[in-house]
Design a protein that fits this description.
It is a single chain. Helix content is 35%, strand content 19%. It contains 10 helices and 12 strands. The strands form 3 sheets. A 6-stranded parallel β-sheet has the order 6-11-10-9-8-7. The protein has 2 domains: 17-130 and 276-287, Aldehyde Oxidoreductase, domain 3 (Alpha-Beta Complex), CATH 3.90.1170; 133-273, TIM Barrel (Alpha-Beta Barrel). The protein has helices at residues 21-32, 37-42, 64-74, 103-133, 152-161, 179-185, 207-214, 228-236, 255-259, 270-273, and strands at 48-55, 59-60, 79-82, 89-90, 95-102, 140-142, 175-177, 200-204, 220-224, 243-247, 265-267, 280-287. It starts with 20 loop residues before the first helix and ends in a 5-residue tail after the last strand.
């Protein structure tokens, strides 16, 4: 596979909705089961309504296209009108989208749609805060593989919407030799036979390891949990075409200090593994006549 087709590629926030169709169907199956017995009991079959998706706080919007896909998967006849575009700033009480059609279908799709919209907007909002925090430095903020099972593609999409970049999407995209690989292999990195076509990233935890890793001329060296003072020393050592990535213990409070060292990349697991979903609700806006 081509080296890191996602990693540090141009930040394109698009997502292929066809590739997540199966995931959405599985999420709906998990939520609905065999049928939505409450909605079927309370709502007449031909009842038509209009509902609004409304923000309950300020945030960066992410997932409105996915939310629409959820509603249309439940019922292709539903009309979904987007009011606020993907990636835009949303203010409290603003209407994000309006859905019209079968009441049963709208209420059945509500929870999965809002869950995804709330989570992804939370990720995009947090990422945006990190990106703004390091301005005007050119360091790229990337995510990690610390994502929820089955949600990696959409979580990493949210990082891009927030202005960040994706680290490798999966293990077959690039070679990243970490400390546990070296311990488990019980041999020196220099003895490994790296395929010529593969570029690699090597994790180091001190300056001695950094100097040894440089001899292999890797594409990237990850400076893991290293002090800022040591990162500055590493930056001062000629590393030619090797990019340097800082990782470990980096948060909003200290990220600007890391960016100021001049590192090319800062990877932050917090973007996807410690996220608070934003508050979004679906409110029935008006009851319409029964479908004829």
């Amino acid at each position: 596979m081509a080296y890191a087709k996602h990693f540090l590629s141009k930040n394109k926030p698009e997502i292929n909705l066809k590739t997540i169709a199966a995931f959405i169907k599985q999420a709906l199956l998990e939520d609905i089961g065999s049928k939505d017995i409450t909605t079927q009991l309370c709502i007449e079959k031909n009842k038509k309504i209009q509902a609004k998706i409304i923000a309950k706080e300020n945030f960066i919007l992410c997932g409105v296209l996915i939310a629409e896909k959820v509603f249309k998967t439940v019922d292709p006849s539903l009309k979904f009108k987007t009011i606020i575009k993907e990636g835009a700033r949303v203010k409290n009480k603003q209407t994000i989208a309006v859905i019209s059609g079968s009441a049963r279908s709208i209420l059945t799709a509500e929870r999965v749609s809002l869950n995804l919209l709330s989570l992804l907007s939370g990720i995009a909002t947090k990422t945006h805060k990190f990106v703004r925090k390091i301005h005007p430095f050119k360091t790229k903020i990337t995510d990690t593989r610390k994502t929820l099972p089955s949600l990696r593609q959409v979580q990493k999409y949210a990082v891009r919407i927030g202005g960040g970049y994706n680290h490798r999407m999966c293990l077959d995209e690039m070679i990243l030799i970490k400390d546990n690989h070296i311990k488990a292999a019980d041999r020196c990195i220099g003895l490994l036979k790296i395929p010529k076509k593969e570029k690699i990233e090597i994790e180091v935890q001190n300056l001695n390891e950094f100097k040894k890793a440089l001899q292999l001329k890797p594409a990237i060296i990850m400076l893991d949990n290293m002090k800022i003072s040591d990162i500055k020393k590493a930056m001062a050592i000629p590393h030619q075409l090797t990019k340097l990535e800082a990782s470990g213990g980096i948060c909003l409070k200290n990220i600007k200090k890391y960016a100021a060292t001049g590192v090319d990349i800062i990877s932050v697991g917090e973007l996807t593994d410690s996220v608070t979903s934003v508050d979004i609700s679906l409110d029935v806006h008006s009851l319409c006549k029964d479908l004829s």
